[in-house]
Amino acid sequence: MTNAPAPGAMDALTDVPGIRVGHASRTGPGALTGTTVILTAEGGAVAAVDVRGGGPGTRETDALDPRNLVQRVEAVVLTGGSAFGLDAASGVMAWLEDSGRGFRVGPDPAQVVPVVPAAALFDLGRGGDWRARPDAALGREAAEAAAREDVGAPVAQGNVGAGTGAVAGGLKGGVGTASTVLPSGTTVAALAVVNAAGSVADPATGLLYARLYEGVVEVPEKERHEAAQRRLAAAREESAKRSASSVRPPLNTTLVVVATDAALTRAQAQKLAGTAHDGLARAIRPVHLLNDGDTVFALATGDRPLVAEDVFGDTAVLLAAGALNEILAAGADVVTRAVAKGALAAQSVDGPGGVFPSYGELYG
């Protein structure tokens, strides 16, 4: 009898060997934004992407098409600042070039072109200053922070990195991460930056949607929930007088990286990115709207083959399909948990750009 899946040692994206995470935030006067860099081991990882939101802000996602040339990437960038914030990827690209990491285009080891896929969420004005947004320097800072981390280190969650200015349905959003180790020994993990037009909590009860998939059915007390809803309504009304509220309708985007140590092809990684969106659909309602840019990247480090090397033919095909299905299902599960952890780790913000109470403040 096999064991049920259990969280990895850190219950974080860094439970996938070789993956490091670095955050850089900008929270000075008028600023509430940041960048998160997911750095692979040298040599990179197989990567893919699936975009479901109607208003994405992305960079180098076409390079991840399985039909195209580049096979592996060294880093993925998640950033605030909407399309402006994509400039953070330039700083990561420069850091990788200085490190001699990237797609080799010549005989000299320095002749590399780092391919750095990136996606941005909308947080403009949430600190009060519309022009306070991530740039190349902040991206480089996040890459350097990732490089300093030990392999398998814990990942900071909540109001950090790309989650610094994140908001979900009026509640403060943030970074959350989770992992699972399958009975086969394969690790699947996710990092989510929760910044949605939809809500992470049921407005009728206050229960986080994602908790239903963790077997948590304890609904907040009625009086607590009613008080929380009044507080949230007042926060939205006050925010309507401040900088961030000038954008109508609200613009958002939830960003995700899901990773595994399995040896996946680029097509299989793209399937993982696609099914991981199911985790968002469980945890955020509604999701994938025209004013969201929901984007999921997948990374496969290739340390663990799907089937034993001595298995061939149709048997290998069937066994590989079964192993991949387990990874696909786990990808959606860890994304759901990552969203819940991001909402729970977030801290309230009251500033010139708006009032964004956290779920923890409202519900304890």
Structure description:
The chain is an alpha+beta fold. The protein has eight helices and 17 strands. The strands form five sheets. A six-stranded mixed beta sheet has the order 5-3-15-14-13-12. The chain has a five-stranded mixed beta sheet with strand order 1-2-6-9-4. A hairpin with a 7-residue loop joins β7 (103-104) and β8. α6 packs parallel to α7 (313-345). The mean pLDDT is 92.
Question: What labels describe this entry?
Answer:
about 375 residues; alpha+beta; six-stranded mixed β-sheet; five-stranded mixed β-sheet; 17 strands; globular
Task: Provide a quick synopsis of the model.
By secondary structure, this protein is of the alpha+beta class. It is 29% helix and 22% strand. The protein has eight helices and 17 strands.
> Structural class, judged by helices and strands?
alpha+beta
Order of SSEs, N→C? Answer: EEEEEEHHEEEHEEEEHHEHEHEEH
Low-confidence stretches: none
Q: Give the strand order of the largest sheet, numbering strands 1, 2, ... along the chain.
A: 5-3-15-14-13-12
Assembly status? single chain
Mean pLDDT: 92
What is the distance, rounded to the nearest whole angstrom, between the alpha carbons of the first and last residues?
A: 39 Å
Percent of residues in helices: 25-40%
**Helix tally?**
8
Characterize the overall form. globular
Number of strands: 17
β-strand percent reads 15-25%
* Main pleated sheet: 6 strands, mixed
- C-alpha-based Rg, rounded: 20 Å
